[in-house]
Structures are given as structure tokens and as C-alpha cells.
Amino acid sequence: MRRLPLLMVLGAGVPFAPGAATPADGQEVEWQEQMRNPIRAVVQNHYGRALINSSGGIDCLGRKGDICFGGDHEDYRCMSIAPCRTEAAMFQFMDELERAARRRPDDPHTIAQAVYGLARLRYTDRALEVAQGCEAVRWWCDLVLGMAYQRAERSVDAEGNLQMGLLGADQELACRLTDIEYLLDGRDGATYSVLPCPSRERGEFEERFWWLSDPLLTRPGNDRWTEHVTRRFELLLHERLWEVIRPNYLLSAGGLGHNLVYMNVVTRRGAPDSQDNIGRFRSLEASRYRFSPASLVGDGIQALHYELEATRWDEGYTPVEYGPVFEVPGQIARFLDGDSLVLAVSADLDAAPIYSRESRFVASGGPTGPFVGFGLPARDPGPSVTASVEAVPMVVAIEAFDPEGPVGRMREGVMPLEPGALVLSDPLLVNRLIPELPTTRQEAVDAMLPQPWIGSANEMVAYWEVYGLQDGQPMQISVALAREGAGMVTRVLRTLSGRSEPPAPVVSWTEEAGGPVHPMSLMVDLDALRDGDYDFSIEVTGPDGSVATATRRFKVGRR
Length: 559
Fold this sequence. Notes:
6-stranded antiparallel β-sheet; Serine Threonine Protein Phosphatase 5, Tetratricopeptide repeat; Immunoglobulin-like; disordered N terminus; 23 strands; alpha+beta; elongated; 13 helices; about 25% helix; 4 domains
């Protein structure tokens, strides 16, 4: 599988495109100046007209799924679900936007506002055609074209144009368009807010954030990033627009650039297309999923986790080129093979309502780090795979695609195994219905459970490996079960090489290592356990007193 380059950032959030020329001197756009005729007259005429409907007596509630403003969030005074303007007025407005752009294709504000207006009204094909006729400064045209491609549901094309546009833009504009402060929480926000722009530190922070926020690591480009930059560019155009059609509001608000509440909402949620029952703006169409991590970027890969379904307080984005998106559970176990880390990975695709025709595995060590990716057998509801990767922190995922659009993804952060004289692999849970306990890693992987979950069965089979001992050296092994938030489970029954021991809080025994890699397997009695989350813990002590531990959390009970 060919891997396309991920977003790369040198500083201030300005993307670097390999082989790209540096910005030409003197290519400036007065993007902070007010728009001039002919586009000024077009928007004044359109938005100065009376609306068909007013907010009186109209019950348009965003919480019920209503799309307000007749589809144009600039008409914030109209709360009707029905169109707020006549069909003739809307067609006249669109025709006037196009005529203005044809008359002044070299004027940055005219071409940008024409594309922005057409795309906002969902006439994306017309917006794209106008954007392709841009004759203003090249980098500005790239930004406009990138916006048009994103709204036309062509995010890969959008990404290339937005990257080139940011390369040529002045630093103040590039910093404004790539700023992610409104997407960050807690310590992440505090850390980011003090980073100067432009700076390498800020660029590296943004680079890492977008790597972790990429909805699909095996899909070309990063459509969450293109959506973010498009939203920020539209905010700039919205500011220029309101200077013409809502000057009194801007005066009272101190300028839209200082109206942080509005900028925060649009950056996080998308353009407000609805209101709730007390008149607060919210976006319903653009904000279903939170693709940024629920964990803090500063907490590292070991803390990585996601909560896909966005609440109204989260940043959100709804992809239109695929979806819906489901987070599915999986199982990952780490093993050693010389200096390499070997991952055994599975995903329970049956946990999501998708019919997978294509599945892919990926392990990524960062935007510019090591990368392993390949396709998996089609239509496998619980694909399992092994892959040799570098022993560095990595994001590991299986992504499955339904031809009708739905996507299932399993994604976890994986750290290298702790180094030491004695090392344990992760316990790998395998299907209890196999004829015999696995004696090799491959046998265990072939039978690995799609996720660490035990349903109605009363037994669990685990496989792991011990590294670092010589043939014949003795080792002490202890295994235990503990319920999450509780003490030791008082019933553990082990079976090893056909031998059994009576129930006990911790089961311990001594055996000799079979070499530098010593495989082990165990059957555990779960019959007395209530539904819930448990930890299966292993401790091995070597002849020199060195100790290694490993834990597998698993679930007992119904899904």
C-alpha cells in the first residue's frame, strides 16, 4: 500500500511541501481591508432585502435536528426551516456573485467572497468553477481553491491547495489560519498558548496534534486538517462580509476578530446552521465526531484514547466523503524478535454495523516517523495480523471500509516493552475452543480473540513469552486476577502442560527456561466471576532476582 506524505510543518503551523518554492517577494494581499465594489454592492443588495419569514412564531430548534436560517447562516434573523428568501432572489444573488467574479478575477476579495457565498449556499460546483478562474496572487487563489475543494467534498485536492496557499501567505495570516488553541483543553491549551508564532515549537505541537487527529491514517491526506483551515479561512471572509452587512454589530462587538465566543464556536463546531431552544448557535451538520484525542497530547502515546461521539462542548467534524465512523474494540499484544518489536493486532469488526470489503493495518511512529501499512483479507469480521515495527512509541490501527460509506476503526497507542535483563510480552488472549493450548506465538495469533472480552464462556486462555533467560535457568512465575477497583479474585485455576492446581488468590510455580525466548500458555477458570472488568497479571522473577510484570485487562459478560 502506498503511503502518501502526512502533513508536515516547519513552523507557525505553515506546511512544508517537498520541492516547493519559497514565497515570492511582494505577493501581498490586503486581507484585512474592507471589500470593494463590485462584490460589496452585491452582498449589500442581497442581505439588505427583507426576509420572507421572521423569527416570530417560528419554532426552529437545533436540538431537534432543525437547520435554521433557510440554510444560509448569514441570515441569522430568520429562524425558519423553510427558505427565507424567494427562489428568484437566491438565483439572482448567485448570478451576481458569478458576474462580479468574472469582472474582477484578479481582485482577492471579490473572488473569495463569490466562492464563499456559493459554497455556503451549497452550490459547490459553481463555487469550484469560480475558484478555478482566480487570477489574483497565486497563494491567495490556492487558499480560495482549497476552500472550494473542501466544500465540494474533495479533501485531498483541498489539502494540496491549502498547503501551497499557507506557504505563500504572510506570517500573520498563516498563524491565524492554522491556530488550534480553540481545539485544546487543559494543559495542552496552556502549553500551546505561550508558544510564539512562528516558531518551530508551535509547528511541532500542531504537527503532532493533527497526526493524532487524522480520522483515518490509511486514507490519503487529513480531511480534519483541511476542514479546520477552511473554517478559519471562512471566518476571515465572514469578518470582511459583516463589515459590510452588519457594521453596527461589529462596532458594538469591538470587531469580529475580537468576538472570541463566535470564533471559538465556528472553529470547534463549524458554521452555525441552527439554534437551540434558548437561541444559542450550534452546528448540527458539521460537528458529529470528535476526532482529536480525548486524552491530552502532552500526556503521550501511552495515554492515547478517543471518544468519537462529540458532545456540544467538544470540537466536532462530520466527514462527507465517508461515514458514519465507528470505534471498534481490538486486542494488541507486544512481543520481541531481536531488536524489533512484533505486534499481534486484531479488531472486532462485528462490534460495528459495517460490511467490510476492505481492511487495512497501519502502525505510525509520527508525522515523519516510521510507518508500516498493508491490506488485510477482505470480509474478515475479526482480522488478526502480526507486524514487525521499530521499538518506538506508535499509533496502531486497523481500519475497515464498507463500500456504502461506513467505516470501523480500532486505534491505540503502543509503547515499546520496558527494557531489562528480564522482559515479558503482553498476555495474548486466545480462543478457548482450540484443541490444545498454544505452544508457539503463531498458534496463539491464529486463534487470538478479536478483543479482550469473554462472553458466556467460563474459561480464558492466555499466551505470553519470557525473554532474557538462558536454557535451564529457573524462574518463579505468579499469576493473579483482580477486579478493576477491587482486591484479588479468590478463585484462580491454572492448567499448564496438563497439570492443575487448586483454587488460590495467587498461583505460583517454578520452572526452567527453555531458552532466550520461553513461550507459555495458561487456561484460567472464570466461572465464579461476575460481569465486569478484570486485570490478568503475571510476574516472573529470574535467578538473579530481576522481576518483570505484564497485565492484560479484559471484560467478562455481555457486550
